[in-house]
Write a structure and sequence with these properties.
NADP_OxRdtase_dom; oxidoreductase; 37% helix; Aldo-Keto_reductase; two-stranded antiparallel ribbon; TIM Barrel; single chain; alpha/beta
Amino acid sequence: MKYRKLGAEGPEVSAIGLGCMGMSIAYGVPDEEESQHTLDGALEAGITLLDTADAYGQGSNEELVGRWLRRHAHERDRVVVATKFGLRHDAATGRVGDVDTSADYVPLACRASLRRLGVEHIDLYYAHRRDPATPIEETVGAMSQLVEAGLVRHIGLSEVSPATLRKAHAVHPVSAIQVEYSLFTRGVVEGELLDTCRELGIAVVAYSPLGRGMLTGAVSSRGDLAPQDNRRRWPRFADENIQRNLALVQAVRDVAERIGCSPAQAALAWLLAQGEDIVPIPGTKRRRYLRENVAAVALALTDADRELLRQAVPEDAVAGERYPESALERLGH
């Protein structure tokens, strides 16, 4: 494993982390036993960054990670635990409802996450989304107080605008911004946001680096998705879009075969090659996919390889938005 630093003042973490969301929600039926084995395998492989959120399964994902942390309490210092707050669930429907990043809510959410995780501090605490009605200075000011109290080590933001990031960083150093970034989703990061991060010394933690599984090549049609799989609701997997997107995946596969790796490994290696300040967090609950992902760290792509991968997925060729409309409304504030 190789390691990278999260921002100018943040922690050192493995070059790729592990997204834990799919262990509890979104991608078919959860498998606690396999998920625990996968977390074991991640630590054995040198992965030190574990990513969760209070919104994943209404806290159940934090509880799952917490059960693993208790089994590995003697190795707590080896692991950087990242979690998020701000997406509140509607009590009636159980679905994510309002975004709450008010100063009053920040410490309540943090203490609840600490209880579920069973830890004394959170290594990296993100605002999951931003309520535009709440000044970011108010939110980050409250997060800063958690750092002063020793409950949080470092702070981050997710899916915010460059202007918001600047305002936040002026209140308290931001170690990382978490944002969707992959061969399928580049325009969100590349340009002003990435320039701002590099000017301020803020790392980019790339979630969905495999296009929610599309770039693995494991999905050949909507029929491969279980009835309860959330991707059935996402535009890029819709009937009118999926075949066009799978053609792009085939183009990535062709380049990967030339390199001598899997499409997933090519996609992750491409992201890693975009800069030492980029840390992908591919999610999986399966050990076999974890091993495949970890192997991408050792891939050394040439300039020609990187360009061929970029050309394989022209950004304007990807069909469909990255989220349903209701979720898109929460992004980029």
